[in-house]
Design goal:
By secondary structure, this protein is an alpha/beta fold. 45% of the residues lie in helices and 16% in strands. It has 5 helices and 8 strands; from the N terminus they run H-H-E-H-E-E-H-E-H-E-E-E-E. The strands form 2 sheets. Strands 2-3-1-4-5-6 form a 6-stranded mixed beta sheet. The chain has a two-stranded parallel ribbon with strand order 7-8. Helix 5 (213-229) links the parallel strand 4 (198-206) and strand 5 (234-240). Mean pLDDT is 75; it is low at 240-260, 266-284 and 286-311.
C-alpha cells in the first residue's frame, strides 16, 4: 500500500476514534460532576441529620417548662461525675476521690402565684426564676429541674464549703428575684420583705455522704427536709450521725447537722462569694422566654479560695 493510501486509511480510522474519545471524555466529566453534586447533597443531608439528632438530644434532655436540664440528664450527669471522681482516686489523688457536691433546692410560695395569675403565668415565673438560678452557678456545674418546684445542682470539684456558698447564693436569689410583671403601667418596686417566694436547700458531699448517686440524693433529701423543718429560707448540710464509724463509701444512715446551716441575710449578694467569677451556662438547654423581663442587675461577688475553683 502506497503512502498516500495509508495516510488516508489512518485518517479515516482516526475520525471515529477521536469522536469516541471525545464522547468518553464528556461522559466522564458528566459522571464526575454528578458524583460531586451527589457528594455535596449527601454532606448536606448528613449535616441536616446531625442537626436534627442534636435537637432531639437537646429536647430529650431539657425540661419543657423551665428550659433547664431535666431529671434524666441530671441522673446521667451525676453518674458521670461520680465515676470521674472515683477514677481520680486511683490516678490523681492519693487521699481519696475528688470532691463532688449535690445540692437539692425546693422553692415554696408558688401556690399564691398560681392563685393570682393562673398556672400558665406561674409557669412563666418558674421558668424565669430557673433561668436566673442558672446564672448563679459555674459553667462546669449542672442545674436541672428535679420535679415540681424542686431543682438539683451537681457541683463537680466542690467541697462542703463551696457548696454552702452556692446554697446561700441560690436561696438569696429566690427570695430577692424580681418576678415577672404583666401590668401595663409602671413596674412596682420590689417589696421590702421579698417576692413571697422562699427556698430551702440540702447539701450532700462525696465521699463523706456516700459514693453512689442514690445515696447522695438520699442524703441531700434528708438535709432538705431538715431545712424545711427549720422554716425554710435556709440550707442544711448532710453528714454522718454522731458516733457513726468513718468508712468512706458506706451506705450507712445520714442526718442533717443543725449546726451546719445558713440563713442568708438581707444585705444582698455582697454577703455571698462566687467561686469562679464568671456567670454560669447550661449550654443549649437554656432558652429565652418571650414573657420574661430582663433580670435585675446582679452585683458581682468576691472570689472564694482556690480549692473551690474548677481545676
Amino acid at each position: 500500500m502506497t503512502t498516500p493510501l495509508l495516510v488516508q486509511a489512518l485518517a479515516a480510522l482516526s475520525v471515529p476514534a477521536l469522536a469516541g474519545a471525545t464522547a468518553l471524555g464528556l461522559r466522564g466529566r458528566r459522571e464526575r460532576a454528578g458524583a460531586a453534586a451527589g457528594a455535596q447533597r449527601l454532606r448536606g443531608r448528613i449535616a441536616e441529620l446531625e442537626e436534627r439528632c442534636a435537637e432531639l438530644e437537646r429536647t430529650a434532655s431539657c425540661d419543657p417548662l423551665t428550659g433547664v436540664w431535666n431529671y434524666r440528664h441530671l441522673q446521667l450527669t451525676l453518674d458521670r461525675e461520680i465515676e470521674r471522681a472515683r477514677r481520680a482516686e486511683h490516678t490523681e489523688q492519693a487521699d481519696g476521690p475528688r470532691p463532688l457536691a449535690v445540692l437539692m433546692l425546693a422553692i415554696t410560695g408558688f401556690d399564691a402565684v398560681v392563685a393570682e395569675h393562673g398556672r400558665g403565668r406561674a409557669g412563666a415565673v418558674l421558668r424565669d426564676l430557673a433561668q436566673r438560678l442558672a446564672m448563679e452557678i459555674r459553667r462546669a456545674d449542672t442545674l436541672g429541674r428535679y420535679g415540681g418546684e424542686e431543682f438539683l445542682v451537681v457541683l463537680p470539684d466542690t467541697g462542703a464549703e463551696g457548696a454552702a456558698q452556692v446554697a446561700e447564693r441560690l436561696v438569696w436569689s429566690v427570695r430577692r428575684h424580681l418576678l415577672l410583671d404583666w401590668s401595663s403601667g409602671p413596674r412596682e418596686s420590689r417589696p421590702a420583705a421579698g417576692n413571697g417566694l422562699t427556698a430551702a436547700a440540702g447539701i450532700a458531699v462525696l465521699p463523706e455522704d456516700g459514693t453512689h448517686a442514690a445515696v447522695l440524693l438520699r442524703a441531700a433529701d434528708a438535709a432538705l427536709a431538715a431545712a424545711r423543718a427549720a422554716g425554710g429560707d435556709c440550707w442544711r448540710l448532710s453528714s454522718r450521725q454522731p458516733g457513726e464509724p468513718d468508712r468512706p463509701g458506706t451506705d450507712g444512715p445520714r442526718t442533717a447537722r443543725s449546726e451546719q446551716a445558713g440563713c442568708p441575710s438581707d444585705h444582698g449578694p455582697d454577703a455571698e462569694r462566687d467561686r469562679s467569677g464568671k456567670a454560669g451556662s447550661l449550654s443549649a438547654c437554656v432558652g429565652r422566654d418571650p414573657l420574661a423581663q430582663p433580670v435585675a442587675t446582679h452585683t458581682p461577688a468576691t472570689v472564694a479560695g482556690p480549692r473551690d475553683v474548677l481545676s
